[in-house]
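Help!! Second protein's tokens look totally different from the first
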Amino acid sequence: MIETNPPETPDHPLRHVAIIMDGNNRWAKKRGLLGLEGHRAGVKRVRDILDACREHQVEALTLFAFSKENWQRPAEEVGGLMSLFATYLKREFKELVAEDVCLRVIGSRDRLSPRLRKLIEQVEADTAGGRMRLTLAVDYGGRWDIVEAAKALAEQVRQGEIDPADINEAMLEKSLCLAELPAVDLCIRTAGEQRISNFLLWQAAYTEFYVASCYWPDFDSAAFECAVTAYYKRQRRFGLTGEQVVQQDKNTCSSSE
């Protein structure tokens, strides 16, 4: 039997969860449905996972909704996905406000329709005061994120605001999409796939990865619980040896007494 209760005082509390929501099309095909029905079922799953995150005091949830590479899919599917995205924003924003959730969309908006861009801006403004952060990555890519951050630093150099020799990791990180959020602690990918697919490449440097075999529409609160349990069973070393981590924990406990 799987132990599902996380430790009461974890060394590295789960603050930020990112999810690559994979398998919607395969879920639909397995049931003899159109691919869009899988995406529609996947949208309904978001609320369940938000509730599960809240139960575990997770501060931020970031979902990979639409990658830059997804534009290569059939035009009908892309159009359906954008329509579903707009529908989600319209239907859920009042619930997000009521549940104290701040929604933000990251990624390029150049290829989104003016109407969708306006809707995103409206929902972001209406939910800005929320304590929990829900981030949807739409037309996003990790490489794009890093390039945009580099461009921002280059512009500061051109304006004479900073010296190239002074640029460091912290400065670049401040220009990334999730700069204001804690580091990603756990990245979950559904459908059994074991790759990062250009998602949060910088932010995932020390992220714990968890692969769920089920498709995203089947990833319920119980599946999320399994991922959380697996996370808390791991020893996060951040370059140290296991022995160093144990000693570090002992020192922390001693100093807090």
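Here's the second one for comparison:
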Amino acid sequence: MSIVILKIIFIFLTIYAKVYIIKEVIYMKLNIKPLVDAKGLNRNQLSKELKIGYQATCNLYDGNAQRIYFDTLQRLCDVLECTPNDILISEHDTKK
């Protein structure tokens, strides 16, 4: 009898937790366009400086990159004379 009650309580708490838990997702986005433009570099020049492909450079420039390697981030900071804090933007998305 007590096992049945414990199972009912567990199911209730599981459902209750799913309804009322707030999930926060943090997205990181690159914002290099202003710094690149201030340096007077075009995408082709930036691509050569970073030693990555032109399309990958365009994705970084437009803020559409899904991931970035640490060595690319380091070269990007060296070329733009900045820190990762200057080019990474945190966007919070809170969902209920």
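Reply: Different proteins will give different token patterns, so don't panic. The mean pLDDT is 83.
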